[in-house]
Amino acid sequence: MENLISRITINENICHGKPTIRGLRYPVQIMLELMSSGMTIDELLEDYPDLVREDFMACLAFAARLTEVKSIRKVVLA
């Protein structure tokens, strides 16, 4: 899993410091939203030909790592 996660980079000069795939301008958040909307990795590969399957798996691994917290608190949005 560590090899996959190493594909996710954070650079304050790229996408305002949001996690991206391999330093490219593909935010992890957007790729996760597309996958959660029902797009398959094969469909995403067609739409983003400069990415590979491992990039999308890295997004999932990164998201899984983010959930490794001791507690989650509800945040009230105003």
Task: Write out key terms for the chains shown.
78 residues; mainly alpha; two-stranded antiparallel sheet; 2 strands
**Total number of β-strand segments?**
2
Largest sheet: 2 strands, antiparallel
Radius of gyration: 13 Å
How would you describe the oligomerization state of the chains in this entry? single chain
The neighbouring-strand order within the major sheet is 1-2
Structural class: mainly alpha
List unreliable stretches of 5+ residues. Answer: none
CATH H-level homologous superfamily name: Winged helix-like DNA-binding domain superfamily/Winged helix DNA-binding domain
Describe this structure in words.
By secondary structure, the protein is mostly helical. The protein has a single domain (2-66), classed as Arc Repressor Mutant, subunit A (Orthogonal Bundle). The protein is 44% helix and 5% strand. The chain contains 4 helices and 2 strands; from the N terminus they run αββααα. The chain has helices at residues 2-5, 28-36, 41-47, 53-66, and strands at 8-9, 20-21. It has a two-stranded antiparallel sheet. Helix 2 (28-36) packs across helix 4 (53-66). The termini are far apart.
